[in-house]
Amino acid sequence: MEQTIQKRVSVGGGSWVTVDVHGDPGAPGLILLPGVMSDARAWRHVASAISTWPSVMVVNRRGRTPSGPLTDIYSLRTEVEDLDAVLDAFPGASAVFGWSYGGLIALLAANERPLGRLIAYEPVMRPFGRHALPDLKAARENEDWDATVDIVNRKITGLDPARVKALRADRQVWEALRRLSEPLYDETLAVNEPLPDALARKADHVDLIVGGANRSTAPYGTAFDDVCHRVPAATVHELPAQGHLVHLEAPEELARLIDRLST
Question: Any stretches that span the bilayer, and where are they (predicted)?
Answer without folding.
Answer: none
